[in-house]
Amino acid sequence: MKLEGVKVLDLSLFLPGPMLTLMMADHGADVIKIEPPGEGEPTRHVGYVKNGASVWFRNTHRGKRSLGLNLKTPEGLAAFHALAAEADVIVEAFRPGVADRLGVGYDAVRAYNPGVVYCAISAFGQDGAYRDLPAHDVAVQALAGVVSLNEGQDGKPAMPHMPVADAFSSLAALSGVLMALLRRMTTGQGDYLDVSMYDSTLAWTPNVTGRIFATGQAHEPKDERSWGGAAFYNLYECADGQWVVLGGSELKFAKNLLKALDRPDLVAVAALPPGPDQEPLRAFLRQTFATRTRAEWEDWFKGRDVCFAPVRTLKEAFDDPATAQRGMIALDAEGNEVVGTPLRFREEPARLDPRLPGEPAAPDAVHWR
Predict the structure, then answer these.
(1) Active-site entry in 166, 191, 199, 223
(2) pLDDT tens-place string over residues 12-33
(3) Both 97 and 242 in a single domain?
(4) Residue 361 falls inside a structural domain
(5) CATH number reported for the structural domain that contains residue 333 in this entry
(6) What pairing do the DSSP bridges indicate for beta strands 308-310 and 329-331?
(7) What InterPro entries does UniProt report for this protein, alphabetically (predicted)?
(8) Does residue 265 belong to any structural domain of this protein?
(9) Is residue 20 part of a domain?
(10) Which helix or strand (DSSP H or E) is residue 347 part of?
(11) SS3 57
């Protein structure tokens, strides 16, 4: 596997760091999760439980080993440094400055392991005006301006459906860690990576910053292409209260659908800029989709070259045989669901290890493989 032989120490909790190290473990890295004294990794005890383990913990910590360390004691600190001396990658997600105060920061480790790639994930980065603010995903999304974009037709924002700041920072961290490991092959030197959830969220806005940068004005979400202003990039309710989406604003899709619905005259409206001018087309599509059930529309759209999809529940998505076909859902020996990896190599594919770390081992019980 691609990362076989890579040794990773993970000091992080919750989601961004553990997802980063999970993807590395799936591809062969030896990941040792360092858990704090007491309850350990919080997600061991958060959310729904199946067969004695939380589903969240199972799908972020499978394939890893666990070590319980109190970094505030000389014994715990000594055990950390013994492992860090041989580590290729260290991941932490403390508030800025905490790792250094504990004696496990980059400068302390680099003194005896100059090749280490040290990744710090935080809400707002290691410097800047927001550096010391406490925050989880939704607060970061709010400050980054993207919660305001989750605006319904009532003009009110809704809670985000996905932990965007967590996810983007995790993927940014993975990319940075792999870049640093690649560069180390030439220089022999590691590096320090400062990943901010806030920065990572803003970095993924190029497709929606047009109005801001071009006019200096804030968005009116329901008039914008990505959030309801475009008739062919929108949600529509069906006769049974279920919903469908049209998900492609290219004019060819509008022509294909409107011709099939005997309204080619509305193609000209689909060609107009998103916003109020497209309301006649949106109104027609609302009325049209309300005439059949979601299932009937799914049958009707089969074979038509139109970007269409039913709005499914997450359960429906995981129950779909196509999801298992792609390896994105599997069962372990006890029947527990395991979410797969999106990184699919032809050579040296991932090997998902569904085993969970037990209760954190004592400091002298965990060594590198």
Answers:
(1) 166
(2) 999 999 999 999 999 999 999 9
(3) no
(4) yes
(5) 3.40.50.10540
(6) unpaired
(7) CoA-transferase_III, CoA-Trfase_fam_III, CoA-Trfase_III_dom3_sf, CoA-Trfase_III_dom_1_sf
(8) yes
(9) yes
(10) none
(11) helix
Which string of DSSP letters, residue by residue, matches 268-314? HHHTSPSSGGGHHHHHHHHHHHTTS-HHHHHHHHTT--S-EEE---H
* List of E strands, the chain: 7-10, 30-35, 49-50, 53-54, 65-68, 89-92, 117-122, 191-196, 233-237, 243-247, 308-310, 329-331, 337-339
Are 284 and 345 members of one domain? no
The token duo for 212 is 């801001």
Does residue 166 have an active-site annotation?
A: yes
Residues, the chain: 369
Residue given tokens 């000594």 in the structure block: 78
Q: Is 21 left (phi over 0), alpha (psi -120 to 50) or beta?
A: alpha
Long-range contacts, stretch 286-289, CB < 8 angstroms, 24+ apart: 286/236, 286/237, 288/261, 289/236, 289/237, 289/238, 289/244
The DSSP 8-state label assigned to residue 130 in this structure reads T
Same domain, 120 and 14: yes
Q: What is the pLDDT of residues 33-67, one digit of tens each?
A: 999 998 899 999 999 999 999 999 999 999 999 99
Strands 337-339 and 329-331: antiparallel
pTM of the model: 0.94
Mean pLDDT, rounded, of the chain: 96
Name which of 58, 4, 55, 63 is nearest 29 in CA terms.
Answer: 4
